[in-house]
């Protein structure tokens, strides 16, 4: 950070500009005229340029003084606004957040203790409603949305893309070999008018064009697909962070070491017209966004390792 002039000297200069004389500036700051004069001289020495021309009718700004006066006026106004916003902050703040169901139960909920520990005066109201329009989105202070591209009805920032891995219950392994993809029951996730092309993307990334990705069982949420995979109902391609508990407890095992990023991901969205919100409340939303971004950077740093005994899934 670049060094700044002494703040008391800047304050004396600003008072002299506003009052037009060192004497009246001293009255404003409750100091003597000589103290104001010395502080302005200190500022001029620091800048290496004069800021005033002393005139019998008062103080005249030099070009350097004029530039500094305009900047200070804006800076002090910004500080005053911030102080007023702080004064309006309640002892507690509540923000309404809408997130996808699987994101809420599998990723967000286990981490909320950390958020509350860091920000004990911020309360979260979390819902998992389906949101498709701006009118629906404006019920909330912010949203986390599952998208393959930024939403055009709000300010979007990517938290992270999904990191897909293929998993199945250990019950489906035979003689140490992972269950084959060919002929397996594939578990799908619904999205929009049909199901998400997760298996299509997976097969394409492996260069497997002979397997039909269509048949199988489709679920309304990834959470349901993960639970079905745990029960041995079939094979699933899942977002690794969403299945971290099952993988750690060996209730799910990776079929192989392959991992695929995107194209779907989780986006932090602030609905359009958010500038109408109380700035202090907006600052609280910004804290929640920063916390989510911090955790999301670590979520897909590397997928869970494949168990050493796993063999590549046969096509």
Structural class comes to alpha/beta
Domain unit count: 2
Sequence stretches where pLDDT stays below 50 over 5 or more residues:
308-315
- Strand share of the residues? 15-25%
**Largest pleated sheet:** 10 strands, mixed
The CATH architecture term of the largest domain is: 3-Layer(aba) Sandwich
Describe the structure.
The protein is an alpha/beta fold and 315 residues long. The chain has two domains: 7-88, Arc Repressor Mutant, subunit A, CATH 1.10.10; 90-315, 3-Layer(aba) Sandwich (D-Maltodextrin-Binding Protein, domain 2). It is built from eleven helices and twelve strands. The chain has helices at residues 7-19, 22-29, 33-47, 63-88, 101-108, 112-118, 134-137, 198-206, 222-230, 244-248, 279-299; strands at residues 52-55, 58-61, 93-98, 122-127, 142-147, 154-168, 186-191, 194-195, 217-219, 235-239, 253-254, 260-271. Helix 1 packs across helix 3 (33-47) and helix 2 (22-29) crosses helix 3.
Blueprint (SSEs and pairs):
Layout lengths: L6 H13 L2 H8 L3 H15 L4 E4 L2 E4 L1 H26 L4 E6 L2 H8 L3 H7 L3 E6 L6 H4 L4 E6 L6 E15 L17 E6 L2 E2 L2 H9 L10 E3 L2 H9 L4 E5 L4 H5 L4 E2 L5 E12 L7 H21 L16
Parallel strand pairs: 3-4, 3-5, 7-9, 7-10
Antiparallel strand pairs: 1-2, 5-12, 6-10, 6-11, 6-12, 7-8
